[in-house]
Design brief:
The protein is built from 2 helices and 30 strands. By secondary structure, the chain is mainly β.
Length: 303
């Protein structure tokens, strides 16, 4: 089914329409005047007509089997294919995860506020496009909030964006190569033990994490950023982690940044990397894959 048009909004009063059609009837005696009046009426009604391209996905309504401009949704109403720039809106609590296959050179602007309490990922992204989050993605169940499964994807958490998860999930999970994450908003985890606010899986190349004025926070005993999901060196990981422009990477009793990547680097040029542990067993930055030469602190604070 193709999404159609809404021709008149409900706020047009019967009195206004009656006056307009009375004037048209009066002007029928003059063909030129009648034509000009019809054109004027058309422009008056355009703001109340749905003739603009349907590039907005409203998650507060069912989109099952709908095709808009730059997007389509499957029969379940949970799986979207994105072929053009679109905006996602709606404040809603869902019971199933949402998937977005985003084409290259295409941006999904996320202004929606979506929550769930599910064991599966709340939002899964594939393809090599861009997801720009200015709203909320929050999973209070045991699943991740945002899983990145598209190699070459770009994820931006804007200044108003929030991505969060509960004690057993990861706010952001990276499972493929060449993913770029830029955090200008908040990525927050309530995770314990091996989970993290941003978790990069093993043997992945080309991951880039830029905490640019935003915050990556692990409140309990999880890591803020975990590069490699094991405690031995992961030779394939060569993640670039940069904290700048007042960014903050903070953890509770675990390391704020733990990297097992043999070629991974951490650069702190402005901002804070810290944890509450304050001991050698759980330092703010722990590089068990590289060496101290993989860490550069040119500004900001590591504590």
């Amino acid at each position: 089914m193709t999404q159609g048009y809404i021709f008149l909004s409900n706020d047009l009063s019967k009195k206004s329409l009656s006056r307009a059609f009375a004037m048209i009837a009066f002007l029928k005696t003059s063909k030129k005047a009648f034509t000009l009046c019809c054109i004027a009426l058309l422009f008056a009604l355009l703001p109340n007509m749905g003739l603009m391209a349907q590039t907005t996905i409203d998650l507060s309504v069912s989109n099952a089997s709908i095709t808009g401009t730059g997007w389509s949704c499957d029969a379940s109403g949970n799986s979207y294919t994105i072929t053009g720039n679109v905006t996602v809106i709606g404040t809603v609590s869902v019971s199933s995860g949402l998937t977005f296959a985003i084409n290259p050179a295409t941006t999904v602007t996320w202004n929606a506020n979506v929550t769930a309490s599910i064991a599966a990922p709340l939002v899964s992204v594939s393809g090599s496009g861009t997801l720009a989050v200015y709203g909320t993605i929050s999973n209070t169940g045991n699943g991740d909030a945002l899983d990145v499964n598209g190699a070459g994807s770009t994820i931006t958490i804007g200044s108003t964006g929030v991505v969060s998860s509960n004690t057993k999930g990861n706010p952001i999970m990276i499972s493929v190569n060449n993913v770029t994450i830029t955090v200008g908003g908040l990525v927050e985890s309530m995770a314990n033990n091996g989970n993290a606010a941003i978790l990069i899986q093993n043997e992945l190349t080309g991951s880039v994490i830029n905490v640019n004025g935003g915050s990556v926070v692990s409140v309990n005993s999880g890591y803020a950023i975990s590069d490699g999901a094991v405690f031995t060196t992961v030779a394939g990981n060569n993640t670039s982690i940069t904290i700048s422009n007042g960014g903050a990477v903070t953890a509770g009793t675990a390391c704020a940044i733990r990297s097992a990547g043999g070629g991974s680097t951490v650069v702190v040029s402005g901002g804070v990397v810290s944890n509450a542990a304050g001991n050698n067993a759980n330092p703010a930055i722990y590089m068990n894959g590289g060496t101290g030469l993989n860490v550069t602190v040119s500004g900001g604070t590591v504590q």
